[in-house]
Inverse folding.
């Protein structure tokens, strides 16, 4: 069925290293993808988005890569900081005008000092 | 910075009781959503609301659930007869336009006992 999923449940990185979080999606009709960060007890917080007509988009310390051929999305965080520790979700939107987000399973990013 | 606000932050209710979760979306947004997150799991879509009517709803959103936008600012989720399995974090989100960034509230933790 249609699903958005993450490859690994947890990721532990050293402070200052780069982090890469991966996500697979199954619906080729999806045309909008978003990464959210969720800290404990809080709602999802937008990090970065990308539309299906793009392969790469950069923000401040974050980069999202989209590979439509293999239906793969990744989030790269440069120089990971302790404040980056959180659960990260990828989400896709494939309902056109109605717009609803389908979230993948979260991955916990843990930054070691 | 504008934000989505939700009240209450925590609601404890007896099984079978009715609850109303309240949300104030960002003022110039047009699309409104309710999502829920069972502890430790992914965020699940419940319902989307646009132009004063439900656009789409998930399988979870059965006859026990209803949404309302009673005035120009509030957006409510009512669960008519709560069940133990309704215990979760409920997030309200709003979006300015289709396929744009969804802003999430801090959530209401609903505990059904």
């Amino acid at each position: 069925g249609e699903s958005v999923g993450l490859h690994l449940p947890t990721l532990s990185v050293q402070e200052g290293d780069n982090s890469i979080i991966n996500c697979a999606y199954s619906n080729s009709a999806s045309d909008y993808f978003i990464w959210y960060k969720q800290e404990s007890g809080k709602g999802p917080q937008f990090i970065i988005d990308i539309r299906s007509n793009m392969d790469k988009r950069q923000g401040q310390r974050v980069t999202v890569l989209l590979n439509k051929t293999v239906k793969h999305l990744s989030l790269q965080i440069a120089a990971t900081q302790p404040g980056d520790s959180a659960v990260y979700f990828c989400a896709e939107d494939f309902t056109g005008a109605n717009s609803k987000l389908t979230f993948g399973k979260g991955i916990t990013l843990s930054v070691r000092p | 910075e504008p934000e989505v606000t939700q009240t209450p932050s925590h609601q404890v209710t007896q099984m079978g009781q009715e609850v109303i979760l309240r949300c104030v979306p960002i003022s110039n947004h047009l699309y409104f959503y309710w999502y829920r997150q069972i502890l430790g799991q992914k965020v699940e879509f419940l319902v989307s609301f646009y132009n004063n009517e439900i656009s789409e709803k998930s399988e979870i959103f059965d006859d026990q659930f209803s949404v309302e936008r009673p005035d120009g600012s509030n957006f409510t989720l009512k669960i008519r007869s709560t069940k133990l399995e309704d215990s979760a974090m409920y997030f309200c989100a709003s979006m300015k336009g289709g396929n744009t960034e969804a802003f999430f509230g801090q959530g209401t933790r609903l505990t059904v006992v």
In short: The mean pLDDT of chain B is 94. Chain B has no helices and eleven strands. The first strand of chain B starts at residue 5 and ends at 7.
